[in-house]
Specification:
about 180 residues, mainly alpha
Length: about 180
């Protein structure tokens, strides 16, 4: 018989399933002297049979309690099962599902570079625009030093005066002074 984990003792459904398995094992052990029993009943149960019975019992009880009702993908194909095999599929799904950013400095800088104009457009003051561009350039230079490792950084630094001029032009185009 397998050893029970501590959390198995606190779950009434698991305790009931284990009780059933223990009773069936005891009943099977009591049939040894019964000549009228069929060969299937006389055959000693293997450990995997006990575990399978226990798992079936726990799953059946969970179904009756409704724990499998209204699951997010109920009646739909499991996403990502088609196509070619990607050994990093779980990692990519985790990054997408949890919206993890900043995993690698190079990737974060590419994203920040793509969003920099939008970030600057939200700023009302020129001094703040300069500070944001200077901070971005400092992060690019630090990442290029490869102190943290990872892929090479290909994100270019931005010219502060040019970005301020572009910021002014975008503001004028939208009628903001």
């Amino acid at each position: 018989m397998f050893r029970r984990r501590r959390d198995d003792q606190t779950d009434p459904a698991r305790r009931a399933a284990q009780y059933q398995v223990d009773r069936e094992i005891a009943a099977d052990a009591g049939n040894d002297g019964d000549d009228a029993a069929s060969p299937e009943q006389q055959r000693p149960r293997r450990r995997m049979d006990d575990r399978a019975l226990w798992v079936d019992t726990v799953v059946d009880q969970a179904i009756r309690r409704g724990e499998f009702d209204n699951l997010p993908l109920e009646g739909k194909p499991i996403p990502g099962l088609g196509g070619t095999h990607d050994p990093d599929w779980w990692l990519k799904n985790l990054v997408e599902r949890e919206q993890i950013t900043g995993v690698l400095p190079a990737a974060q800088l590419r994203r920040d570079d793509a969003e920099l104009d939008e970030t600057l457009d939200r700023e009302p003051e020129e001094d703040r625009v300069r500070a944001i561009v200077e901070e971005f350039n400092a992060r690019v230079i630090d990442a290029r030093r490869q102190l943290l490792g990872g892929p090479p950084v290909v994100t270019p630094t931005r010219d502060v005066e040019r970005e301020v001029q572009r910021w002014r032009e975008r503001r004028r185009a939208h009628g903001i002074r």
